[in-house]
TrEMBL record:
Residue intervals passing through the bilayer: none
Species assigned in the record: Methylomonas lenta
InterPro entries: Acyl_CoA_acyltransferase, PEP-CTERM/exosrtase_acylTfrase
Protein name per its UniProtKB record: Exosortase
Signal peptide: none
NCBIfam families xrefs: exosort_acyl
Short name of any one Pfam family annotated for the protein: Acetyltransf_5
Length: 253
């Protein structure tokens, strides 16, 4: 079978952050994007360079995406589970209809979706006319080395994270996914065939944002997954165990 060297699965992998170390990686990516780059959060409130809020401790599941070839963490996303009868996005927008108690039991919210600016910048065609970056294209200060040049690398990583989220929700009996996102992402989500219902009026929250409801079964049925994004996600703790076993073997040999 011919391997597509420009596929997500050939170049990236998604992990569920289930250890303190992996959550620190996750929070740091958020800090770089939400505090350093975008200024959405005050960096003075996060002197440890880890951005988190009250939803992270007991009501969230955290995901990371890594460049396979060089081990760099390049993107993150969190799923928020309801806190009694609320989700974070509800305080920012007016919904057409309040969620019921039963709906909360089968729902999650996708938030803090972010991809490092170095990765988004390198997706521009000018950096790699042959589809692969070379060392001379990369600033010395960059913490991201050679990455394949996709037409839109930010979206490629987004779909990989959403695929992982859909698998997690399927495994944990969560049927509905809520999002509060910019119009550009609404367009991209619908363009690839996800059914995304607008459930309220657009609001102002870090720019214009639109509340959406997506169905997990619909996401899982998307034809995009037949060609790529088949690996889903792994537990970060399994990665640690594999690394520990490898080191033991190297030591014994």
């Amino acid at each position: 079978m011919m391997v597509n060297n420009h596929s997500f699965d050939s170049n990236f992998e998604v992990f569920l952050a289930d250890t303190p170390e992996s959550k620190a990686h996750h929070y740091n990516i958020r800090y770089q994007v939400y505090c350093d780059e975008m200024g959405f959060e005050d960096k003075e409130n996060f002197t440890d360079e880890q951005e988190y809020d009250e939803w992270d401790k007991n009501h969230s599941v955290h995901f990371l995406v890594r460049d396979k070839h060089h081990g760099h963490w390049v993107g993150a996303l969190r799923l928020v589970l309801p806190n009694e009868h609320s989700l974070p996005f509800e305080k920012h927008c007016k919904l057409n209809e309040k969620l019921s108690g039963d709906q909360y039991l089968q729902s999650v919210e996708l938030s803090r979706l972010c991809v490092l600016k170095e990765v988004r910048r390198f997706s521009a065609k000018k950096f790699a006319p042959y589809g692969i970056l070379t060392e001379k294209d990369i600033p010395v200060s960059s913490n991201v080395t050679v990455l394949h040049n996709y037409k839109n690398l930010g979206l490629v990583l987004t779909w990989g994270l959403i695929r992982a989220v859909a698998l997690y929700c399927t495994q944990n009996n969560r049927q509905d996914l809520y999002l509060l996102v910019a119009p550009a992402l609404v367009y991209a989500i619908r363009k690839v065939g996800f059914s995304a219902e607008q459930i309220g009026e657009p609001c102002k929250h870090r720019g214009k944002r639109i509340p959406l409801k997506c169905n997990i079964e619909n996401i899982m049925a998307n034809s995009m997954w037949k060609k790529d994004y088949k690996n889903g996600f792994s537990l970060y703790s399994d990665l640690f165990e594999e690394d520990l076993a490898y080191r033991k073997m190297a030591y014994l040999s």
